[in-house]
Amino acid sequence: MQLLDKERTTGFKDDAFSCLCCQVDPQYPGTALERLQGIHFRVKTLSTEELSGEWQEVRRRLLWAGGLRDLPDVPPGRGCTAHSFNDDTHCDLTAMLGDVAHNQNDGNIQGIATGNLLGPGIQVASLPELGPGGSWSTCMNGCHLEPPQDVAHVQFRSRVAFKLVWCPPAFKKFVLVDDDGNYLAHGEPSGELPHEIWRKSNYELVKGGRYARVAESYGNEE
């Protein structure tokens, strides 16, 4: 008999998921808690060795952990994930409830176009086995502020499941941190990485905030 998808892929049984499904994050009510917990479980299965392989394969593992399909060839706005973790800013893996996935930016997020409708693409790209709602690699702009003023926290009223931050000063390693800036995983991938300008800019987006601490610590070990 085949194992239940939720238990096999996230580590939780149905009764645990039912409990999570009924809960609401009081500070960020747009958070899909069921998906977020499942994403954290998947991230814990990723070894440092696995996250230190060839970059494109590492990126595919990050997409899988975050509940996203690898869709590099579909048009932007229709579920394309080619940009995810491949530039400086699309490095927040956000798990949001279905009723907020179609929220738009009302102009309160600096550097993000007004509107920024992502819902249709989120529906296409999200893997269903992690639970209700959807996943997306949202923009980090404003995450250095307290509280964070980025797309996840403002447009979707959602916590980030994990954030990828490249480590100064060499920007060869990256860390994954949770919504509070705590360590989840790290790696030092090989191959054709995102351009060094983007890796440096990625760190600059978190510099001075809660998400910089772990990256700075791991970078200083080089």
Q: Give the helix/strand class.
A: alpha+beta
Q: Which residues form runs of ≥5 with pLDDT under 50?
A: 1-18, 103-109, 111-116
Pattern of helices and strands: HHHHEHEHEEEHH
Mean model confidence by pLDDT: 86
**Could you give the count of β-strands?**
5
SSE map:
Elements (H helix, E strand, L loop, with lengths): L4 H6 L3 H9 L10 H12 L10 H11 L26 E5 L22 H7 L8 E5 L12 H5 L4 E7 L7 E4 L5 E5 L8 H11 L6 H7 L3
Antiparallel strand pairs: 1-2, 1-3, 3-4, 4-5
Keyword list:
222 residues; globular; 5-stranded antiparallel sheet; 12% strand
Describe this structure in words.
The chain is an alpha+beta fold. The chain has a domain at 26-163. It is built from eight helices and five strands, in the order ααααβαβαβββαα. It has helices spanning 5-10, 14-22, 33-44, 55-65, 119-125, 151-155, 196-206, 213-219, and strands at 92-96, 134-138, 160-166, 174-177, 183-187. It has a five-stranded antiparallel β-sheet with strand order 2-1-3-4-5, sandwiched between helices. It is globular and about 45 Å long. It starts with a helix and ends with a helix. Mean pLDDT is 86; it is low at 1-18, 103-109 and 111-116.
Write a short abstract of this structure.
With 222 residues, the protein is α+β, with helices and mostly antiparallel strands.
